[in-house]
Amino acid sequence: MTSLEIHQIPVLDDNYVYLAHDPATAACAVVDPAVTGPVMEALSRRGWSLTHILNTHHHGDHVGGNMTLKEATGCTIVGPRADAARIPGIDVQVGDGDTCDLGSQTARVFDVPGHTRGHIAYWFEGSDALFCGDTLFALGCGRMFEGTPRQFWTSLAKLRHLPDRTRVYCAHEYTNANADFAVSVDPGNARLRARAEEVLKLRENGKPTVPSTLGEEKATNPFLRADAPDFQQAIGMAGDDPVSVFAETRRRKDNF
Ligand code: ZN
Ligand code: FE
Question: What is the C-alpha to C-alpha distance for residues 58 and 218, in angstroms, rounded to an integer?
Answer without folding.
Answer: 27
